[in-house]
Structure formats: structure tokens, C-alpha cells
Amino acid sequence: MAQKKVGEKMFESSFEYDGELKYRLIFEKSPIGLFQYNTDAVITECNDRFVEILKSKRELLVGLNMHKLNNKSLLPAILDALDGKNGYYEGPYATTTSNAHIYVLLKAVPLTNPKTGQVVGAMGIVEDISELYRTQEELTIQKEHFRILSSLTTDSASILTIQPDGNFKREWLSTQLMDEIGYRPEDIDSFEKWAAIVHPEDLAEFKNAYNTIVSKGEKVSLTFRVKSKVGKIYWIENTVYPEFDNQGKPFRLISAVKDITQKKRQEQELQQHQNLLKSIVDNAPIGIWVVNTDGTYPLINPWFSQNIGYGTSQFSMTEDEIDQCRRSDMQALNSDGPIETTEEVTFTDGKKHILQIFKQKLTSTTGEIFGVLGIANDISERIQYEKALVEALEKAEESDRLKTAFLANMSHEIRTPLNGVIGFAKFLRNFPDTTPQEREKFLGIISNSADHLLTLINDIIDISKIDVGQLTITPEPVNINELLAEVYSFFYNANPDLPKRGIAFNYTTSLAESEALINADRMRLRQILTNLVGNALKFTEKGKVDFGYWVNDESKELLFFVTDTGIGIPKDRQKIIFQRFRQAHTDITKQYGGTGLGLAICKSLVELMGGKIWVDSEPGRGSTFRFSIPMDRSMDDTTKISMGYQLPALQKLLSGKTILIAEDEPNCMYFLKTVLKKLDVNILEADNGLTAVELQKQHPEIAAILMDIKMPIMNGYDAIKNIRTSNPKVPIIVQTAHAFSNERSISKALGCTHFITKPIDPNSLYQSLYIALKGNKDD
Ligand code: ADP
């Protein structure tokens, strides 16, 4: 109530305020700090704002002698006013009482007695300008920072204003980057000039981006190339911020430009590097993959993924293989360096491949282990190749060993019969008084030894022919029953001690005589059977040796067998005995002799005939050799004639006939004459082709000609050619050394009728003559 009254009073009497009161009110309420001091610089009065600025108390300030202030920074300005001048101070001030750091602006004006003009004190006006100061200080610091920063970077910044025509004008440009690129600010002080240095390929995008900034008012970051003043290309990253006016329209652009040429180059190099790496990984014919510790596969290259069908239903690795793979992953994770393993992995081709695998744990830049890198090389072929090499080497060594053994054997095999021939031949010459029985025996030994030698030489020739692919099969009509009988009687006669040795020797035929005629290479079939039966008799101590054949109607084959109760052949040797030089019983070879060639030749011959050969055997119980040949029954009339051959019939046919023998070798001539004498024929002799041709012309009664091929003056071929010009019919029987297979074909082409093979077997000669003459007669 009392207060209200005072207020009302004040209002009512407001006009009565005197100047003093007014002044006091202004003094007190002024937002500026005011203080009054006397000539001794003692503060006599101050207002609230002054107390507030100095963060002090009125009672501490009023009565304060400012001479005594610790902080003397204000004192000069204060004293200036006492000297009648205006005092001024602007700067930092640490208050004495509150020890606060502030910035102040002090103006001090002298108070003078208007009457005397004498200074009676002074008035101080104080403003707290700390805020302003700080802002300015910060600005200065920021400016300094900006200066330092822009001196540290090669980047540039600029400010562009948007012109009324929509174009830009560059207001400001920090020069660092543009200096480097070689442009002065005036070179690029408009948008058009700026655009002019942009690479043509990037220009459309550049303009587009700037339009977007203006039309949408969005910050844009774009990269493009610019040409330097000297034509060098720089990559620039340009970030542009729009500033908007109070209608929200962009009116200014702040643009920061950064040289990213180096970064771009690095990026491009990195990209190229990555592309290169990717193409290596994608095209490498090896497996490359990365497995993370969580079991995922962030990388698996095409070679590997295709081969194991990764990620498809064709996935081919087995559980065991996956386990093995995981184990080696663990090993790699626990190992400092790379590890190498060899693992078997099933591929989609269904085969197990042998992989040589290198594994290495992978570590991130922060040192964390995050997975394993695997590289796999398929070494299956290499291993196979190495195996084959080792086998080949072993084979070569074995073959070398076998050849050495063969040569030693061969020397023995050749010397034994040669000793027989040479020894007994000399004996017969030196001791003519030997008894007829002894002579018979010695001649038998000589003949057997010679046969043996011949077989040996034939075997070697055959093997050489097999090697050069010259061994040919010449089918002719053969009575296989007769062939078997021949082989049987040969061995029976050659081994008269069989019954004494307790060996039952037999043969069986399964076709009737009339059916037993087939087309086959007689000589070669006989050779095979002779070899097998010879072996059976050689390797059998007692028991029996049977041979024969039967017919498989279904396969139209003849199946021959030679079975014995001999020493047999161990299982592991049953295949290799068909290879050359191989013998099943190397330990007892000496006992049985042999060269290891017979079965190899038999195998080649049987296969050439279109059949197969094999053996079933049990050591100690015996062996059965079997071979098959196709049954060929297509034959011509001559065949039937040959079937009728008997010696008496031949004698009858030839008796009194004339036969011309063309042969330059006296021994052969002698042998042929001896054989033919048995037939009661007249013989004409020619020791060269020319004589043969002439004799043939002079003696039209010649019933047949035996013609050798290799002769002096005129060879057999030319002689046949000549004879055939005048006499197409006379039978010409060529004697061929079967070592030269084309002799037969050439002679046949020239018109010869028959062949006999040297060394000449009398029976074959008789048979050929019979066929030749009988055939001629029937014509
Ligand atoms: P060779 O008899 O000249 O040594 P072969 O090629 O005819 O050569 O035979 C090779 C080997 O096969 C013989 O050395 C022998 O070890 C074995 N062999 C062949 N036939 C028989 C058989 N009937 N019984 C036991 N072993 C045999």
C-alpha cells in the first residue's frame, strides 16, 4: 500500500523532476557501465552495469583508489581524464576483485567546474567488449587456419555468382590448383571459360551437373577432366554448394576443386591390376579359391568350379575328400607360411584326380585371419606320365637284360646244333670206315641239328618281319586233318623215346576227311602247332601230350588246343610268355633251352590270321594252350586236285616227262635233281634265266619249269616274262626264299603257276608238281 503511494507520487510529480534526479536515473539505469572518480582517482560513484562488468561489488568499488590497482592497464586513460584530456583504452583487462578476464572499452572524460574550468574529477564509461573481441579473435584464428590450410593443399576453391542471364561469374578463386594447371584467375573467370577447359568427352555431363545445381538447388559432386594450359589432362573432383537468397533461389555457388589425377591414375592402375588378376584367376588352368573362416567361398575360379560342379547338382567331391580338404584348411590356418598337400578329388568326369594343393592363410590389414587361399594343380597326368616313364625305364632295363640273356641263350642255341652238324660231318669225312649203322645215326644227328638251326633262323627272321610289319599270311587250301597228322608224325619220329619216357602222345581231329579242307596259311599254321607241340613235349617229363582242334559253329572258328601234363606255368608268367624273349622258367632255362621267341611269333601269327591265343596252366599239373582262327571254306578247284595227291599217282603222271630246272646254286641244283630222280623224269638244267628261256624254246616237250629268282645274266622274273610271251600254259613253279615276301606277288603277276619255299621240302615239291600238272591236264 505504502509502495503504491510512492509510485503514484512519483508519477504525479514527474514533471517536477529536477535535472539532478534525471541525471541520476540515467546514470543508474544506463546499459553502459559508468563511474565517477575524483582528482585522487578514487571512485566516488558507479552504476550497476559497471559493477556487473567488473564482476565485483559496489561497496568494494566505491572508495577504491585506482592508483592502487594491481592491474594498471586502465590507469593511463583514467589519469588522462584527470589531466583534462579524453582517456581511451581498449583491450584485455583482468579484474582485481574477481580475477575475471574480460575485454573492455574505456572512455574517460574530465568533469570540470563550469565556473572555474578546473578539473574536479572525471567520468568513466566502460563497455564489456569481450564478446566482440572473442569473435574477432576467432575470426583471426580462422583466417590464419584457412591461410595455413590453403597453403598446405593443392586444392582450389572459388565462388561463382549466378548472373541474371543464368550464366556464372567467378567472384573469387583460390589459386593453388589453377596455378598448377597453369591458369590465372582471369583465364577462368566465367562459366564459359571454365567449361572451355573441360575435356570434350566430359563436357555434357559437366554442364548437366551445373544445370542441376541451379534448377534443383542441390549440392553436386562431379568428376571430369580438364586440359592444362600446356595440354596435359588432369582429373578434377568438383563439389559445388549452392547458396540461396531469401526467396529460396540459388544466387551463389561455392565450388571446391580437387586434383584427383593421381587418385584416378591409381584407381585405373588398381582397376587394370584387378582386371589382370581376374583374368588370370578366370582363365588359369588351375584351381584357385578362397574359403572364409565361416565356411563360405567368396572366390572359386571357373576351372575349379566347373571341374567339381561347385554350386550345382553335379557337385562331385565325396564326403571323405571334403573332410580331407577341411583338415588341410585347418593346417594352413595354424601354419605361418604356405602349406603343400596332395589330395585326391573326384571331378565331374567321374575320375579321381590327383591335385597338388598350396594353401595359405589370409590376414586382413588389421591382422585378423579371415580365410584360406587355395591353389590346386591337377598332376594326375604328370603322375601317370612319371609312372609310365618309370615303367618304360623298367621295361627298357628288363628288355636290355632279356636281350643279354637272349644273346647268351642264342649263342648256346646256335652252337649246340652247329656242333652236331660240323662235328659229325667232319667225323664222317675223316673216318670213311664207319659202319652203315653209325653213318645212319650220325646223318640223323646232322639232319636234326640242321632242322633245329633252320627253325632258329626262321624264328629270328619272323621276329624281324613282325617288327617291320612284313609278316603276311597267304591262305591256301589246307587239309587240317592231314596237317595235324604231319605234325604228329614229325614229332613222333623225332622223339622215339616217348613211350620210354612214359608220355602218351596223341592227336584228335573233329572234322571228317571230306570236311577238313579249309583256307589257311599252311606253313604258318604248321609253324604254330609245331611250336606249341614242341614246347609241350619239351616241358613234360611224363604223363601225356594231346593236341587237336574242334569247331565252334557259332563263331565259325576253329579252336586248336595243345595240352600237356608238364611243369606248368605260374599265374604271373602266363601273360608275359607271349612277349618276345620272355621265359616262364628263367631258373631252369638252361635245362630246356629255347630263345623265348616261339610264343611271341605264334601270337603275332594267330592275330594276323584273325584269331586269339591264350593259355590255362597250373604249375606242376600242366598247361593247355589254345588258339582260334576263323574257319574259311571258300576254295577253288585246284584244291580238290591237291587233295588227290599221292606219290604213286605223281610218279605215274610224270614218268618220262621233261622238267627244266633253272637254278644257279650248284647245291640246290643237286638237291632238286636228287629229289626229282625218284619220279623218273628227264631233267634239263639252266644256271641262269637266259639259258632257261632258250632251252624252253628248243624243247617244247618240257612239262614243267622250276624257276629260281635270283640268278645271274637274267633273273627269274625276266625269264618268266619271256617264257610267257611264247608259252602261256607251261607250269612254272617258283622257288622262293620266304624271307622276301614280295617275291610271291611279283612272280604271280608275271604269270608263274605255283610256289615252293626254300629250303625245299621234297613233299611240298611233289605236291606242287602234282597240282601243276594235274591242273594242266584237266584243262
Ligand atoms: P622258348 O620255348 O624257346 O623258350 P617260347 O616263346 O616258345 O620260347 O616259350 C616261352 C616260355 O614259355 C618257355 O621258355 C617256357 O618257360 C614257357 N612255356 C611255353 N610252353 C610251355 C609249356 N607247355 N609248359 C610249360 N612252360 C611253357
Quick recap:
By secondary structure, this protein is α+β, with helices and mostly antiparallel strands. Helix content is 44%, strand content 25%. The strands form 6 sheets. A 5-stranded antiparallel sheet has the order 2-1-5-4-3. The protein has a 5-stranded antiparallel sheet with strand order 7-6-10-9-8, with helices on both faces. A 5-stranded antiparallel sheet has the order 12-11-15-14-13.
Count the helices. How many? 26
Compute the separation of the termini in Å.
180 Å
| Main sheet: strand order | 2-1-5-4-3
Bound molecules: adenosine-5'-diphosphate
Structural class: alpha+beta
Number of strands: 27
Strand content: 25-35%
Characterize the largest beta sheet: strand count, sense, and whether it forms a barrel: 5 strands, antiparallel
Uncertain ranges: 1-17
Rg estimate, integer Å: 64 Å
**What is the mean predicted local confidence, pLDDT?**
84
In helices, the fraction of residues equals 40-55%
Which geometry do the CA atoms define?
A: rod-shaped
Task: Using brief descriptors, characterize the structure shown.
disordered N terminus; 27 strands; 26 helices; single chain
Walk me through this protein's architecture.
It is a single chain. This protein has 779 residues and is α+β, with helices and mostly antiparallel strands. It has 26 helices and 27 strands. The strands form 6 sheets. A 5-stranded antiparallel β-sheet has the order 2-1-5-4-3. α14 (436-468) crosses α19 (598-608). The chain is rod-shaped and about 200 Å long. Bound molecules: adenosine-5'-diphosphate. The site of adenosine-5'-diphosphate has 21 residues, from α17 and α19.
